[in-house]
Amino acid sequence: MKKREDVFGVIGLVFMILLNVSSATLSPSGVNYEVVALMAIKQGVKDPHNVLDNWDLSSVDPCSWKMVTCTSDGSVSALGMPGQNISGTLSPAIGNLSNLQSITLQNNEFSGPIPVKIGKLWNLQTLDLSGNKFSGELPSSLGNLKNLNLLRLNNNSLTGPVPESLSEVGGLTLVDVSYNNLSGRLPKISARTFKITGNPLLCEHNSENDCSVVNPEPLSFPPDGITAGESSSGNKSRHLAIALGTSFGAVLLLIVVVVLLIWWRYRKNQQIFFDVNEQYDPEVCLGHLRRFTFKELRAATDHFNAKNILGKGGYGIVYKGQLTDGTIVAVKRLKDDINFGGEIQFQTEVETISLAVHRNLLRLWGFCSTENERILVYPFMPNGSVASKLRDQINGKPVLDWSRRKNIALGTARGLLYLHEQSDPKIIHRDVKAANILLDEDFEAVVGDFGLAKLLDHGDSHVTTAVRGTVGHIAPEYLSTGQSSEKTDVFGFGILLLELITGQRALDFGRTSTNQKVIMLDWVKKLRQDGKLNLMVDKSLKNNFDAAELEEMVQVALLCTQFNPLNRPKMSEVLRMLEGEGLVERWEGSDNIETPRFGALENFPQRYADYIEESSLVSEAMELSGPR
């Protein structure tokens, strides 16, 4: 036992020595110093979902690790583990990841201080620590992050003043320190948006009328030569004339500046639309998004060659592309007959979508906008979509076995939960289905195409009656009114669960001997009533599934697909039930799931298929995304 303790002591000593090595990629012992830093971060946290399980000190290359993104030269550029229920403290070793450009740790349980050494990350552009339990004062070293664009520290327990050093960071787009316990005077931070609401002591000592959003103060030009000691009437008159003249001059100057600014913005917008081959700097970013030129995306996709098509849908076509640095991307070329609004409107919505960052959401990397083109760029998902993999087999075995299907259900639920209850603003997907759930290299579920339905509506004159989605997945109330809510996504998720169980599509599932259409949801309800759950399970699984888990998943699916949206659970409840909490009570308390009714309408269809056939809006419903 003593020898074992000595071995661990030596390993710990070597570990601490390696933490101080940051001048070269490899430490004197040959260990990658970025690996050592990441392992120190792992050592300081509790990871209930084992999302960091493949972080290994013996690894030479951390680029294959979960939650880690690297540049083309193999340096760690992003650390993203939002919404993973990770707790513990953030190790100062994070300061040794000198090439980091993005840190997104929001909506976890991190506590303790924000490490001072985070100020060593000169390349950092995005720092999102919101929704945690960080405490202590904001380190003044934040002022060293000269490339910082997005700073979100809201919803923590931080105290003390906002560091004066932040006023020296010139490229800030958003600073959000709301809902902490900050105090003191505010420095003049030149951010487009500066949120401080929820800090009573901070607002108390500052004179802004609106304490929620603080914008940079305009420069003031006080008249020269006036002192408190001058009291003669001549001087007063002279100074009054000077003051009036100066005021008039200032107003005139302000008018000229405004006119020039409007003209500049007009010219800038004209230049944006001028030519699709315009050679603007590809490194120009919107927030942490990269703006691509049409020329480089055209080259990446081999002139949008049909052989590179990954999928088609109501939005447009998705192509596989390769950037000049070798990075493989998915390029979504939006349809040119859809009105996505003007340039500013499009950029605003794209930026909103890009701020939704979660392990189980498809991250938007960049965009391209010209007079005739709107293009979005995403990371390439090597395993395609759930829809494309449900029917795939290797050596006679399904690629998606029962265990993977359960994990896909859990990952999708976590992604939708983030969109509904943790994203600001809230995002409703409106087309949750197997074709829109992508799979990364580890077959982890990644929800794609979220936020685009809202983008699509900017050209509609009757948004509330424009039904977006795929028939077979659309909630009854959405077909009836065109009004979407979180509960329409919950319905779609319930259908997704049935797709995972059956391996089949929800629409045109089959026909009876009388040639009557059978929809999956109706078929599953009938089998459950008859006590024949085994008959609904995908035949390719060859009975390799857990019967108890099947029963539970069917129950969650039926709770999610109740016709009355008020009876459906929220995604936070759905996730808990999938994790084994509260399902029994919720199922026992559910009302008449087998024969659903909606409101007090006596003639409401008893089957989902009947309702679809009777709905006048089904013909308007469009499929937003096809299989990939």
Characterise this structure.
It is a single chain. By secondary structure, this protein is α/β, with parallel strands linked by helices. Among the domains are: 95 residues, 2-Layer Sandwich (Phosphorylase Kinase, domain 1), CATH 3.30.200; 235 residues, Transferase(Phosphotransferase) domain 1 (Transferase(Phosphotransferase), domain 1, Orthogonal Bundle). The chain is 30% helix and 14% strand. It is built from 16 helices and 26 strands. The strands form six sheets. It has a seven-stranded mixed beta sheet with strand order 2-3-5-7-9-11-13, with no helix packed on it. Strands 14-15-19-20-18-17-16 form a seven-stranded mixed beta sheet. Strand 17 and strand 18 form a beta hairpin. The protein is globular. The chain starts with a helix and ends in a 14-residue tail after the last helix. The N terminus and C terminus are likely disordered.
CATH superfamily of the domain at 386-620: Transferase(Phosphotransferase) domain 1
Task: Please report which band the strand proportion falls in: under 5%, 5-15%, 15-25%, 25-35%, 35-45% or over 45%.
Answer: 5-15%
- The coarse silhouette is globular
| CATH class division of the domain at 386-620 | Mainly Alpha
Low-confidence stretches: 1-11, 13-29, 212-240, 266-286, 457-466, 510-515, 594-604, 616-628
